[in-house]
Amino acid sequence: MRLWALAVSTVLLAATALASDGPRALAGPPVVTDAAPDVPMAEHAENVASYTLRAKLDPVAHTVHGGGTITWRNASSKPVSELWMHLYLNAFKNQSSVFMRAPIGGFRGNRIPTDWGSIDLKKLVLVDGEKRDDLLGGVELKRPGDEDETDARIPLPREVEPGEQITLEVEWVDKLPTIVERTGYDGSFHMVGQWFPKIAKLEADGTFAHFPFHHLGEFYSDFGTYDVTIDVPDGFIVGATGPVVETKRESGRLVQRHVQSDIHDFAWTAWDKFQVRKETILGVDVTVLAPPGYDDHVERELETMRFALPHFGARYGKYPYPVLTLVHPPASASEAGGMEYPTLITTGQPSWLPRGLWFVETVTIHEFGHQYFYGLAASNEDAWPFLDEGLNSYAENEAMRAWKGPGSGLDFAGLAIGDVEAQSERARHFGHDEKIAQGAGTFATGSAYGALVYSRAAALLETIARAYGKEKMDRALGVYMRKFRFKHPTPKDLIATIRDEIGPGAAENLHAGLLEKGWVDYAITQTSSHPSRSAAGMFDRDGKRETISPDKTLNPNRYDGYVLVVRRGTLRFPVEIELVSTDGSRSRVKWDGQTESYRIPYSGSSALRAAVVDPDERILLDQHPENDFATAPGHPTAGAPRVLERGMFWAATLLGGLTP
Ligand SMILES: [Zn+2]
Fold it and tell me: In 317-456, which residue ranges form alpha helices assigned H by DSSP?
């Protein structure tokens, strides 16, 4: 999903404080080169859980009658005697669900549906050759003392051996809620996500990664093939995961069949007012479904995809599916926007937004990025949400900057603000009281989840890229996404890839930043500059004793001094320190950042005027950028660098109470 609040805070930041002093030129046409051409990439996923389903929509009652078969293979090393099944729509059944009773905490909507939603299983049969076992009666929807019904346990009549495949026949009825976050209806608009009974992912050790639907948590599933036939009243336009393989019109109904392999979820939408636009980009059939009157938005979303498909393909490996559908929900259903499913994303933002406020583009890039960081990697989003949203936010920032240059977040009315700079201000403002790498359900608030999982994770990755070299980071994430395509990578896999491709220092910083609440503050704490003097005193030279008095020691036109730079916190990035002399000359000193302080001697033909640590602003995580600059005693602070950043820092501080 997209962090909507970030867009809002970006505008407010701009309006509050800022005048850009950065370069304004837009980047030229991006040069797209493959980030890791030598790294092989799986062509297909392992088929573990496949669904052949039919779904019939009643757009007046807002129900979906579903049925079909699920084939599921025990891909673990242990026999299993139960299944766990996600029944996500029950999150909207009542206020006692885990989803509804969690504190909302300023993230992902505040809505309680005005019409509740549910999923009721009507049939669940294990088909074993001629034998049929009815499992419905044994389904355990709830745990003792808990009303939540999103995480069902299904005891099996016998063990399923490793490698064995079983078939289940299912029937169910969905009652869609009014739009709540990412699913439901608004009038005749229907966004049908998390709508079918879905088997939890079985881990290699034979345990199910099952969990109730938490409002900050997303999903985790095995790959398979989805063959879904959607049946709606004629006159509705359907958008869904995967390509259409069959369309029929009969008895006043439209019946549309979609088939796609190598995916782990399926979503669809139906509305009788969609405007449809299609374009083939890089061999992918892109369809945009939008409300009437959004022609300019649709064009901007297609412009975004013309950039994003080649850009992400080069960075993270070719997009492997034949289709991509962008769904722009109607304004009254904006809660359905900013969400990702395999080959289908929902976009958003109001129709009046002018170019320059790049929020339409940003949300489109972000949701498309999830085709990689949610879709193809398929990490456990419940246990490690940063592997999805954090990496994807970094990829969003990287892509927006490659496309739009320094004003990649906003470039409007004389202001230019980068997407990544806004993101890092938010990360810095929020601080580091909790770990980035923790489960969705364990964050104290939605604000903490948003700031850490999205912004701080992205700022940490951007800091590593700037400190060790962006080409290395491009290559590292390129390797990670190719090597672990369809493989459900974990934080260990990410850190190991960073170690292999960038080095142990980068890996240690990533580990500490993700798992140990790592932080850093570089500061110039002392500067000194004075006329150079040679030594006074008695000296025995050439058999004679010579006494030099202090008033004879001045070295004309020479100055000495020092700069003391300190590193606070637990992250250790290499930095540069720039020394500025009164004659305007500048020199740079490199520091590996491994110790806690570094005393840099100064010697020059004019006095030291000022010093700045990290002059190129590589350490976006630096907790206090305002102490990165200091003047030597006797020099005014005029001309301090980082006008923009300081403005943003204070603006972010002021906005602390306004934005999550
Ligand atoms: Zn997202």
Answer: 359-370, 385, 391-404, 419-430, 446-449
